[in-house]
Design a protein that fits this description.
Mean pLDDT: 96
Helix content: 40-55%
CATH superfamily of the largest domain: Type I PLP-dependent aspartate aminotransferase-like (Major domain)
Number of domains: 2
CATH topology of the largest domain: Aspartate Aminotransferase, domain 2
Number of strands: 14
Low-confidence stretches: none
Strand order of the largest sheet: 3-9-8-7-6-4-5
Strand content: 5-15%
Largest sheet: 7 strands, mixed
Shape: globular
Radius of gyration: 22 Å
Length: 402
């Protein structure tokens, strides 16, 4: 595999994000293909037994097995690292594989993890239930209160884990402030950036150490494949993350990597259009529902912080209805254009009831603490004409008496 002519590391890091999203990490075979090649292979052949041994020893460059390296996956990893401004990236089979491996590789029995309380449902289960089974102590705090992190730090705190904007409450964490707290205590800050994407927010630039993604969301953006990614320092990636994942195998398939590579070419366009649509929808709905949260609106209690960290308000809205689950489900059932789906970041507008879907595995008292009530709905705004989305939501709101 030959790198695209002239694509040395210094040059590609100086490209602007939209260029990196199209050309970053591109490698071409001897056939000179324009679109990235799809390498559907599980293993690799060697010219001699000694060459195989040298590769496994690390004395000779080259690939050994697609659980460890694959040319298509490698192109995706290099492109994502460029877009994020990271030294290194490793792709994984899903967003949860990425988050789990990042934390499990860093923490050991006796270590303490501090996390923001508003997390995606499976991430909250990981923090509350799975990690403690391995002797890892965990504490959750209100991520909106930076001082709460400082007060909860312990001598054995090795990592802080946050989502910002949080799923589905849209709480905003002050990344720079929490990074300072983590570093003062000798800990690493992990940020789940799936709701923003590198187009809207780059946590590493704000002081975070590790950033993780569900690439299933905005990076694919068309509801096709699962994928995840973890990005951070080369040293941590080699000595900590890869030491764990090379033996546990949460690997991304070459086909999914190829789909994601093609998706990244339009990521900038899609995210910016969806953010514009989301702001328009939020403006239209704000006076129609008892409570609406969107980081781009002045009514969001953390709008100033959000706009310091983000280039736009994102693509997700949270609606709170007074009629509980019955009214929320009634609104969903009245939709004609917007789909009922628990995914986000799609080209199609999607809506779900978190308490009965994405956060159903979280205990009710914990959901209440997070702010995930029975009347909450999460709306992921897509690429349709925003007025059509508004019209659909308008008729659905009327159907439930709003």
């Amino acid at each position: 595999m030959k790198r695209k002519a002239g694509q040395d590391r210094t040059l590609t890091r100086n490209w602007r994000p939209a260029t990196q999203a199209v050309r970053g990490g591109t490698a071409r075979s001897e056939y000179g293909e324009t679109s990235e090649a799809l390498f559907l292979t599980s293993g690799y052949c060697y010219d001699s037994a000694e060459e195989a041994a040298a590769r496994f020893r690390g004395d000779e460059k080259g690939m050994t097995y697609s659980r460890l390296q694959n040319p298509t996956v490698e192109m995706l990893e290099q492109r994502l690292a460029l877009m994020e401004g990271a030294e290194a990236c490793r792709a994984s089979a899903s967003g949860m594989a990425a988050m789990t491996a990042a934390l499990m590789s860093t923490l050991s029995a006796g270590d303490h993890l501090l996390a923001g309380r508003s997390l995606f449902g499976s991430c909250r289960v990981l923090v509350d239930t799975i990690l403690p089974r391995f002797g890892i102590e965990t504490t959750t705090v209100d991520g909106r209160d930076s001082d709460a992190f400082r007060k909860a730090m312990r001598p054995n705190t090795k990592a802080i884990f946050v989502e910002t904007p949080a799923n589905p409450t849209l709480d905003i964490v002050d990344i720079g402030a929490v990074a300072d707290i983590a570093h003062d205590g000798g800990a690493l800050l992990f940020v789940d950036n799936a709701f923003a994407s590198p187009i809207v927010q780059r946590p590493l630039d704000l002081g975070a150490d590790i950033v993780g993604y569900s690439a299933t969301k905005l990076m694919d953006g068309q509801g096709r494949v699962l994928g995840g990614a973890v990005m951070g320092p080369e040293k941590w990636m080699e000595e900590t993350y890869l030491a764990f994942t090379r033996h546990t195998g949460p690997v991304l398939s070459a086909f999914n990597a190829w789909v994601l590579l093609k998706s990244l070419e339009t990521l900038d366009l899609r995210v910016r259009r969806a953010c514009d649509n989301a702001l328009k929808v939020a403006d239209a709905l704000e006076a129609r529902v008892p409570r609406l949260l969107y980081p781009g609106l002045e009514s969001h209690p953390q709008q100033a912080l959000a706009m310091r960290q983000m280039t736009a308000g994102g693509t997700i809205l949270a609606l709170h209805l007074d009629g509980g689950r019955a009214q929320a489900h009634g609104l969903l059932d009245a939709l004609r254009l917007v789909d009922i789906s628990n995914n986000v970041g799609d080209s199609r507008s999607l809506m779900t009831h978190p308490a009965s879907t994405t956060h159903a595995a979280v205990a009710e008292p914990v959901r209440a603490e997070m702010g995930v009530g029975e009347g909450m709905l999460r709306l992921s705004v897509g690429l349709e004409d925003a007025d059509d989305v508004i019209d659909d939501l308008d008729q659905a709101l009327k159907a439930v008496g709003l």
